[in-house]
Amino acid sequence: MKITGLLILLLTFSTVNAHDRGSMTPAILASEAKFIYAELVFQRNYGENKLWVSSNYVSEQTKQLIAKKKYADEGLEILGQEDWELTTAVTREFNGGFEIYYYLKKKVG
After folding, report:
1. 101, 89 in Cβ contact below 8 A?
2. Rounded CA gap, 79 and 91, in Å?
3. Burial of 58 (0-12, 13-18, 19+ CB in 10 A)
4. Which bin fits 12, alpha (ψ -120 to 50), beta or left (φ > 0)?
5. pLDDT tens per residue across span 33-62
6. Residue 85: what are its φ and ψ, rounded to 5°?
7. How many CA atoms lie within 13 A of 43 on its CB side?
8. What pTM was estimated for this model as a whole?
9. Phi, psi for residue 106 in degrees, rounded to 5
């Protein structure tokens, strides 16, 4: 009987604290953050550079502006000004050139 009462007390205590945002640590609150994602691709193929964005969360105006740029750092700068954060980059080589895929995230809410 004592174990059952203790178990109920512990469950009640953990449930109350789970809903009390004031008692949560910053790490717990950070894990509740929502993000949207985008992919910036820089391609160099036979000496020609191309740059584009793949995401439903980036405006058409921004996509067009980035497509006019020549270098990846220019595209990253534009997205950075709109609060996008670079998370990782992956390079892929192929005959005649290479591609760099930049993966970005943006906190929402």
Report:
1. yes
2. 19
3. buried
4. alpha
5. 899 999 999 999 999 999 999 999 999 999
6. -120, 130
7. 12
8. 0.70
9. -140, 130
